[in-house]
Amino acid sequence: MAKVVVLSEYCKSCGLCIGVCPRKVLAIGDKPNSKGYYVVVAADPDKCIGCGLCGTVCPDLALEIYKDK
Amino acid sequence: MAKVVVLSEYCKSCGLCIGVCPRKVLAIGDKPNSKGYYVVVAADPDKCIGCGLCGTVCPDLALEIYKDK
Amino acid sequence: MSKELMKGNEAIGEAAIRAGCKLFFGYPITPSTEIVEYLSKHLPKAGGTVLQGEDEVASINMCYGAATTGARVMTASSSPGFSLKQEGMSYLAAAELPVVVVNVNRTGPGLGGLGPSQADYFQCTKGGGHGGYRQIVLAPSKGQELYDFTMEAFDLADKYRTPVVILSDGFLGQMMEPVELKKRPKADLPAKDWVVGGCKGRAKRKVASYSLTNEIGEVNNLHWEAKFAEMKDSLQRWEAFHAEDAEYLIVGYGTCGRIAKSAVLKARRQGIKVGLIRPITLWPFPEEAFANLDGVKGILTVELNFGQMVEDVKLAVECRTPVYFHNRLGGMLPSENEILRKLGQVFDLAVEV
Amino acid sequence: MSKELMKGNEAIGEAAIRAGCKLFFGYPITPSTEIVEYLSKHLPKAGGTVLQGEDEVASINMCYGAATTGARVMTASSSPGFSLKQEGMSYLAAAELPVVVVNVNRTGPGLGGLGPSQADYFQCTKGGGHGGYRQIVLAPSKGQELYDFTMEAFDLADKYRTPVVILSDGFLGQMMEPVELKKRPKADLPAKDWVVGGCKGRAKRKVASYSLTNEIGEVNNLHWEAKFAEMKDSLQRWEAFHAEDAEYLIVGYGTCGRIAKSAVLKARRQGIKVGLIRPITLWPFPEEAFANLDGVKGILTVELNFGQMVEDVKLAVECRTPVYFHNRLGGMLPSENEILRKLGQVFDLAVEV
Amino acid sequence: MQRVFGRPKGLTELPFHYCPGCTHGVIHRLIGEVLEELDIIGDTIGVAPVGCAGFSLDFFACDFVGAAHGRAQAVATGIKRALPDKIVFTYQGDGDIAAIGTAHSIHVAARGEKITSIMVNNAVFGMTGGQMAPTTIGGQITTTSPYGRDCALVGAPIDMPKTVATLSGAVYVAACSVDTPKNIIQAKKCLKKAFQVQQAGLGYALVSILSTCPTNWGLSPADSLKWLQENMLPVYEMGELKMTEEVKAL
Amino acid sequence: MQRVFGRPKGLTELPFHYCPGCTHGVIHRLIGEVLEELDIIGDTIGVAPVGCAGFSLDFFACDFVGAAHGRAQAVATGIKRALPDKIVFTYQGDGDIAAIGTAHSIHVAARGEKITSIMVNNAVFGMTGGQMAPTTIGGQITTTSPYGRDCALVGAPIDMPKTVATLSGAVYVAACSVDTPKNIIQAKKCLKKAFQVQQAGLGYALVSILSTCPTNWGLSPADSLKWLQENMLPVYEMGELKMTEEVKAL
Amino acid sequence: MMDKILLAGFGGQGVMFIGKILTYAGMLDGREVCWIPSYGPEMRGGTANCSVVISDEEIHSPVIEYADFAIVLNQPSYDKFLPRVKPGGVLVANSSIVSTAGKRDDIEIIAVPAGDMANELGNVSLANMVCLGALLPKLTMVDLASVEKAVSAVVGKKKPELYELNLAAVRKGLGK
Amino acid sequence: MMDKILLAGFGGQGVMFIGKILTYAGMLDGREVCWIPSYGPEMRGGTANCSVVISDEEIHSPVIEYADFAIVLNQPSYDKFLPRVKPGGVLVANSSIVSTAGKRDDIEIIAVPAGDMANELGNVSLANMVCLGALLPKLTMVDLASVEKAVSAVVGKKKPELYELNLAAVRKGLGK
Ligand SMILES: Cc1ncc(C[n+]2csc(CCOP(=O)(O)OP(=O)(O)O)c2C)c(N)n1
Ligand SMILES: Cc1ncc(C[n+]2csc(CCOP(=O)(O)OP(=O)(O)O)c2C)c(N)n1
Ligand code: SF4
Ligand code: SF4
Ligand code: SF4
Ligand code: SF4
Do the domain assignments include residue F82? Predict the structure, then answer.
């Protein structure tokens, strides 16, 4: 079990995470954060395998990844 | 036939020419020039073979070399 | 003649091209960068060269080199970058090389911010580099003047063989106004019979700034002293705005100068006889503007710094009328109302804002 | 206490060591070089570090870095090298970093010569770097003062968190005089609770000088303005030499100041009431020295430049008595007789030289 | 569930002020992780000059000093000489390190100054709006090379790490990129080694990292990565360009 | 009899002001000869910064410009950009070129500036009285390294030509010495080539020349040559360090 | 007569652009004009603003302490610039994303759903032009004709289709 | 009382050295002293000079316009500094290499064949000390005893043989 959490106030909607996610978990959402960025959401959260690629490329530390240990 | 000519006002008595002359033509003289340097003289002028080594190392262009052509 | 809408920095660039500037060496720094950007685009088309130096020190020394050949050359920077050029400025003044140097003053000290400031007044007019040289400093206050003064700066530089500083600020540089792209009439300038370029057919020349002995140093300095005195006598320039009958004078240059005009007009509408002296040459400071102070009850100097030009005003006024000071700092600008309020306060006048 | 015969530059070096200076960064330049040479020899023995920077820009920025840690640090240079440090000086002032900077003024502008000069007065007191900051400037006039003022400079720098400039000249730097190597009493200085050094056990700290917005810039500048005003109020210092009953005042600092003393004594021997004001702090300029000018018929300012301090004298005097000017240039010095002659000339006095 | 990825302790909580998609942020994270992993947050002083990263003073959890443009290495030298037992690093742009800071870049390396420098190479002056840098690629259009960088007139881009590697005091010189997860992980390794070199007191360490500037390149974040790969990677030599024996032995 | 050796036309008649035995003079002669042989005296502008050679403005027969310490290459760049058809060269000390002038030394090479630089390496700052230079040899005593240069603290000497050679615009980089007649003749060849490179417009050319400073080394002129041979030659790589194909084809 | 206009929004919303259009419009009408961008080392993508002064006499002080008119395209700009409109002035807000809850009684606040209206034209980024249109009737120094000339001058030559689109947005804002 | 002394010669002739000896001598005697080198970017090996002031009161102006005493060790120095001695002053010249043909009647010129005398001591470079000896009786502020102390302080510790040699030269100049 793995989970990706988006910290919306950090996300700038650059989309880089979407490109690297092997399971197409992420997508640009339709709600702007306080700065006006349409933040990424886990559109298909259950597919997440916790590989961490999204976090690796995210320039704004807007993603946290959780896993069962 | 070769001849070395010392331009006394240029010579600073550094002695470098003396060291390279293969025929020991040159020596520090006993007359100072207007700046007070005891200029080099051709002590044994006839031995000069015009090899040009003295002029090559002289930092002050105080030597001219003449040769029959 | 039709006008072009351009940023102040662009007006400087265009004026340089039309003044025959053939080389520009500079290092980008906000808020001067549009100058090098504009020239990068347009100077090559006019047969000139733009080269980005590795830093400001390189740039000013490239200017030094190019100027020794007689070519018209310019650089531009902003406060911290201008500081780095100070050794070079001193060398330009000493070697008497005509170079136009733009300082788009931003707020300092240190890194500071990008807002407009006039805190480099002393640096341009008195201090800056070592050795006590003086240089012409022009203070435009609007797009048209940025254009006109830049053009003129090249002539002045050539005429007096001196660096000329255009002291602008981030506000003027970024502002867009219509500018008439006038052609400057050909000035009558001395022949550049001192330039290097290969001595074929003439005696060798050299351009340098050293004094082998103190005696030579004194001779050289007396020459410069005389030249500075001549420049001081012949170059003072200012705009007098409603100053003839003024009972109160505002003194301000550049951005402050133009804002002050609105204050003057507003005061006049209220029947208060306020006028403005707007120095155009900051060095030489227009002392002559203060020769006649009959009827003037007091002066208010407005600056974007801790108080710099106010000293020159006091020296020019020679205690004939009191001199007060108003400032804004850190990139902030005074409004016309603020100036008016201060005027009312120091001279005890009833003003309406 | 016994005295040591030392060159002025060496006295600076020795004083720095005894004041607890732990780091020196500099780049050699005549006539300041004995300072780095002396320290290269002696500072390591005292547990300190001397590092030759790759140039003056590097050196002043190394000082900046070292000062952020709270260590006592110094650099020294001479006019062209001091010009290169101007961006750094502005950053030091803005980041409020205590650094002692020696400028052994040589004659300029440009490369100039190696003789003594006071042409960097404005550069040190007003202009120099961008942004209108102010810094303490001390003007020693003999070996003992070079030593004493250098020691004190470190305390002043720490007390006010500011760069302090020692403005010397090639003459003072090369001259050998006996110097008493006094110990400076421990000053009561504020804790350095702002220094970086690893945030273990406390909140992280930063030292910087930027203003993100104009509003912040204004706040920062108001802070500096207040600090400069406080320094101006509390730091003015000068020597009054036969000034109490003087009818004529000479004003001169450093080398000119001491030469002027001989002129004063010679004049007094002729019954002419001449006195001297010798500014010790050039910034803040000792305006207070001119508070009471009763009985003073005129002032003669003597400088080794085109006329710089004379402006500060005029501003301080506020037209209460006429101010005249005498200078020598290019590395030349006035003699006491020359000063006396000038005094006689401008005030129409019969002097014997 | 346990957090397996998130903000390292080496960073403060402050959101970065960089443009969307700018990889300055990735590099920040890597450094933040290294600081945490080596447990040196409390013993480190960072130095940031002017440039987009000029305000990074607030983002790292360690003490920080803001330097003038180009002067980070000189400032770091001063700090390190005053505090030889602390860890000192500089975070600089390519303009900073390869244009105005050139002399210091060469001389910290020559002196073997025991500091760590990180050079973020985005082929332009970012903060001032995208002018040409010494690292701008041949033909690349910038605001001061509006017709494309003409190498015949202004030279080919400088490969700074290669030049620095010639200096004997530079004991570790690496060139990385953060365009792919793989390269990001490699960059982290190099960064870590560069700090370990300093901990061991071996000499000067430089890590150059290719980074994007979507704003000034005028490209989307994703296209920026592609542009980097197509235009920068072929020009700049990648890898650990220099490692002394002592460094290898670490 | 015919004069077979004497003053070249590239020099004025003025006696040099250098100290007795200082090999600055030898290098001057070589340049004077090259200027004459290539027939470019009337088309050349030399640039001298500050240093012992700072007053060499008077010694060469061509036009000359005096630059600030360290700035010769920037000044030369300005001249060359203004007058691309002229020959421009700089004559600089090692302090000038490798300390304060470092950034310009790197960037003229990076830009491929079409000028010729001559670096006179005497391992000290000569004119200011013999302080340590970046080129000072390990252990060498100078006025600012009174206990001998400690390479652990200040680094090993910089071999500037090697560093410059890494830059793509530097098409010809040579390192020579004037300690023996043979080396002097070799140095002349390199100097000549460096000017020919410029005539052909190929790029930047640098010739570094090891030279003596009897005064500041505290040695006789003859012992100075020996010191150079024993201490400098082993440290500095000699020879034509870099030649592009185009230069080889000259 | 003098119109002092403040324009503010997110970077990318075209604030600078409508500023320049207004300035051009004024200039082409023979007015004195002046355009001033705000300028700061702020985060890119942050708030941008500029001010425009159009006048029939020389513009001395270009500093707008209190504006006659304002256009605000996003919430932070509304909050920041609401107090900067002088009594009797007019503020146009892009009500698609701006809540005009914070009110003033002494000025006229025109709430235009500019985002939505622009969307109707097929391009949300035309919201700026819609707002410009909404403000136009209030301005004393420029009118639709001069704005048409300005748009034509700025984008017309190169991209006629853009000209049409922009003007359509202006007209939509104008209610024409 | 104040002795103002000018010292000049070639670089290498030890001009600076005798200046320092005089200065030390004065200081060790409790006088106020001041030593000033000339300084210039002149050719090395050129003329060097320095000035020394010794006084029983504070030395304000250290600038010597006209000297009370001078020692000149070579011809250019003689020519240059002859006019700089004040009327009634004393000039000592190393007549081994200086021609004192250019004369002044209002000062005392002491021609000492210092080079030859130094040679007799086995070292021509002691000519400076010989001249110093010759000047000593004329000085008001230092005497042989203080010079002895000074030489001892400056070179004595490290090199006793040098101390002896130098003093022998001084005494020879003094005629003792
Ligand atoms: C002395 C000086 N010159 C110029 C500048 C303007 N300036 C600030 S940052 C910068 C370059 C930024 O580029 P880079 O170092 O590559 O960093 P980036 O912004 O791309 O991350 C410039 C030219 C300055 N602040 N100070
Ligand atoms: C800005 C500046 N800094 C320092 C100096 C002092 N200075 C003059 S020449 C020189 C170095 C001389 O060494 P080098 O370049 O090796 O030439 P050399 O005299 O040995 O031939 C220095 C430090 C100066 N003139 N200007
Ligand atoms: S030319 Fe040769 S042989 Fe003749 S003097 Fe010179 S070195 Fe000796
Ligand atoms: S090498 Fe030249 S200067 Fe030296 S002694 Fe010989 S001739 Fe004289
Ligand atoms: S301008 Fe470029 S480098 Fe700077 S934050 Fe934006 S994307 Fe990053
Ligand atoms: S000091 Fe050294 S480099 Fe300079 S002229 Fe004398 S010997 Fe030559």
Answer: yes
Would you state the structure tokens that stand for residue D91, as one six-digit string? 């950053």
pLDDT confidence of residue H45: 56
Q: In chain H, which residues have their Cβ closer than 8 Å to the Cβ of F55?
A: 41
**Final residue belonging to a domain, choices C179, C207, C235:** C235
Domain-located, residue D122: yes
| Domain containing residue E134: CATH number | 3.40.50.970
- Whether residues D279 and D336 share a domain: the answer is yes
Q: Contact C351/C274 with Cβ under 8 angstroms?
A: no
Q: Identify the domain boundary among C177, C212, C235.
A: C235
* 3-state secondary structure at position D185: coil
**C11 and C127 together in one domain:** yes
The distance from CA G156 to its chain's CA centroid, rounded to whole angstroms, is: 19
Query: Ligand 6 centre and the CA of F54: distance in Å?
Result: 11
Lowest mean pLDDT among C38-47, C62-71, G4-13: G4-13
Q: Which subunits count as partners of chain F given 3+ CB pairs below 8 Å?
A: B, C, D, E, H
Q: Coil, strand, or helix at residue C116?
A: strand
Considering the domain architecture, whether residues D30 and D176 belong to the same structural domain is answered as: yes
B6 lines ligand 3 (CB under 6 A): no
Q: Are residues D231 and D244 in the same domain?
A: no
Show the domains of chain G with their CATH numbers.
2-174 (3.40.920.10)
Would you say residue D282 lies in a domain?
yes
Domain shared by C107 and C229, yes or no: yes
- Alpha carbon distance E124, D211 (integer Å): 24
Q: Contact C244/C208 with Cβ under 8 angstroms?
A: no
CA–CA distance from G150 to each of E79, F44, F245, G52 (Å)?
Answer: 56, 54, 57, 14
Pick out chain A residues at pLDDT < 50. Answer: none
Q: Of H42 and D280, which is predicted with more confidence? A: D280
Structural domain of residue D257, as residue ranges? 240-347
Strands C100-105 and C73-78: parallel
CB of B4 shorter than 6 A to ligand 4: no
Is E139 among the domain residues? Answer: yes
Q: The whole model's pTM is what?
A: 0.98
Residues in chain E: 250
Give me the mean pLDDT over the D336-340 stretch: 97
Residues C303, C173: one domain? no
Residue B28 CA to ligand 4 center (angstroms) comes to 9
Please state, rounded to an integer, the average pLDDT across all residues of chain D: 97
Average pLDDT over residues D28-40: 97
User: Is E84 a member of any domain?
Assistant: yes
Within-domain flag for E17: no
Report the DSSP pairing between strands F124-125 and F131-132: antiparallel
Question: Which of B48, B63, B65 gets mutated to test ligand 3 (max ligand atoms within 8 A of its CB)?
Answer: B48
At G22, is the pLDDT very low, low, confident or very high (cuts 50, 70, 90)?
A: very high
Number of domains in chain C: 2
- Split at pLDDT 50, 70, 90, the class of C342 is very high
Q: Write phi, then psi, for H19 (nearest 5 degrees).
A: -60, -45
Model-level ipTM above the cut of 0.90: yes
CATH of the domain at C67: 3.40.50.970
* Structural domain of F146: 24-244
Q: What pLDDT score was predicted for residue G42?
A: 47
Tell how far the Cα of E213 is from the centroid of ligand 5, in angstroms.
5
D211 assigned to some structural domain: no
Whether residue G3 is predicted with pLDDT greater than 60 in this model: the reply is yes
Share of chain H above pLDDT 70, in %: 95
Q: Which atom of ligand 1 is nearest to the CA of E69?
A: 26
To the nearest whole Å, the CA of B14 is away from the closest chain H CA by: 12
Select from E106, E112, E168 the Cβ nearest to the Cβ of F106.
E106
- D106 and D160 fall within a common domain: yes
Q: Does C95 touch chain F (CB under 8 A)?
A: yes
Residues 6+ apart with CB under 8 A from D37: D28, F131, F143, F144, F146
**Signed CA dihedral, E138, C33, G37, G57: sign only:** negative
